[in-house]
Structure formats: structure tokens, C-alpha cells
Amino acid sequence: MTVPGPGEPTGRGDDSTIPLPVPTMPVAAPLPARARYGPPPGYRPDRVRPRRRRLRKLLRRTAGFVIGMAVLAAVAFGGLLLVTPSAGNAEALVRAQDLEHHAAYPGPPVAPRFAAALVATEDHRFYSEPGIDVFAVGRVGVSYATGHGDQGGATLYQQLAKLLYTQGRSGASVEAEQVALAVKLYLSFSRQQILQMYADVVYFGNGYYGLAAATCGYFGVQPASLSWPQAALLAGLVQGPSEDDPLTNPANARTREEHVIGRLVATGQLTQAQANTALAVPLSALLTNAGGCSQ
Predict the structure, then answer these.
(1) Residue 217: is its pLDDT beyond 80?
(2) How is the chain split into domains, by residue range?
(3) CA gap 236, 255 in Å, rounded
(4) Does domain 62-286 bear CATH number 1.10.3810.10?
């Protein structure tokens, strides 16, 4: 037998060497991020737990405070309902005021355009709220608590309560009374009745109490014939009948009319094109027949 010398073929092809087996090393599982990189700088587990405990304690205290305030508010409101008069006599009070102001009782049905303009401007949640706007009441409460006084937001129910029960009085306690009376009015009358009573007694300036007197006095028409700009002008008068008087302060009246028409657009009662048409009518044209309705 001949042993191949160095450099001679071995009979196994051209490979002159026999490879040795390579040992396999176990692959370690990947370490979690924290194990690879370690805790963040300043990490102290002994401080994390107390911090979490303080946070939970703060949340519990906050929740307790909120619940406590809600309970106190409910108790206070229940007390208000007990001490305020019944609202069942509202129609009798409207009749008495109409008699005092030489206005017909009941007045004609509330014109749809005036109702839409009034609701859009004064109380856009009128058809869904329970007599009060909870958000507005909360805002007014915070306002008084911080010393800023009334911030507005009275619903039509509250405004009617003021017209019938608390005229000539003001202050936080009076407004709280109006809130309770507003809820009682909501529970006692339909929304249409609320609008009718409001339209019968609200003051529009120039000695015009009630919608019928105002439409005849300013425009020489009955309420059912009101145009959109006329309805908007009247709805803008209820908050400032003297300051926004169209006969003595036409610029103010025009500004209020524009505001009301803007609210009608915002609440979807008018399109922008309809609003532009309404605003194209000058104030003087609206008042052409002022002085009373022809019989």
C-alpha cells in the first residue's frame, strides 16, 4: 500500500484536508431592555412606591371632594325648592301684569319667527333643558365664588321667573331662587306655555309690554306677519330695551339685530343667504309703519 506523500492527491477529489467538526454554542435568550441597559439614572424603587401611594391618595381625596360638593349642591337645591313659592300661579301673575300694563291677556299666539329668534339668542337649549342650563349655572356659581359676579346664561325659564317673581331684586340669593323657580316652571307648564307667558309680559321699550304691543308699535303689523329682520330686532331688545331702542339708539338696535341673525344662522334656523337677505333691509325700512296697527 502506497501512502500518498505530501502534496499528492488523496483520492478524495481535490480536498487535501479533512474539516474538523465545529462545536455549537448555546444561544442565550435576549435580555429584557432593563436587564440590558439597567434602570434609568436616579431610579430608586424605594421612592416609586410612596409616590404612587400619594397619587392614589390624591385621586381619592379629589373624588371625595367632588362627590361631597355634589351632595351639598343637591341638598341646597332641595332646600331651595322647599322655601321658594309654587310656580302654579304663573299664569295668574301674567294676567295681573297684562292688566296693569293695559295689554290683552292672553296675547296672540307667539309668532314662530320670533320664537326661533328668541330661543336662538337667549336660550338655544330651551327645547332640551330641564328649566336650567347646568353648565351656565355652574359658570355663574364659580363666578360668584371668585368675586366676579353674574356671568349671564339665564334660561328663558329663569328670565320668566325673574319677570314674575323677583322683579327689582338682585344678588346671588335671588338668582338661586330664580333657578329653583325655573325648575318649577318647567315641571308645571309646557314649553309653548312658557313662551306664551314670556311673550305676554316681556318689555320691549317705548312702553310696549308684550309681543303684540311691540309688533304693532314698531312695525304696524300683527305678530304673525313678522319678517325675519323684524323678529330678530325684537328678540334683540329683551335684554336692553332702552339701550337698544331702535327709535332712539338705531346703531345699537342694528348691532343687536345682526347678532340675533348670526345666532339664527349658527343654530341652523337660517342659511347664510337668508341672513344676508334679512340684513339687506335697512332699519329705517323696518320702522316705516311704526305707531300702531290699523284696525
Answers:
(1) yes
(2) 62-286
(3) 9
(4) yes
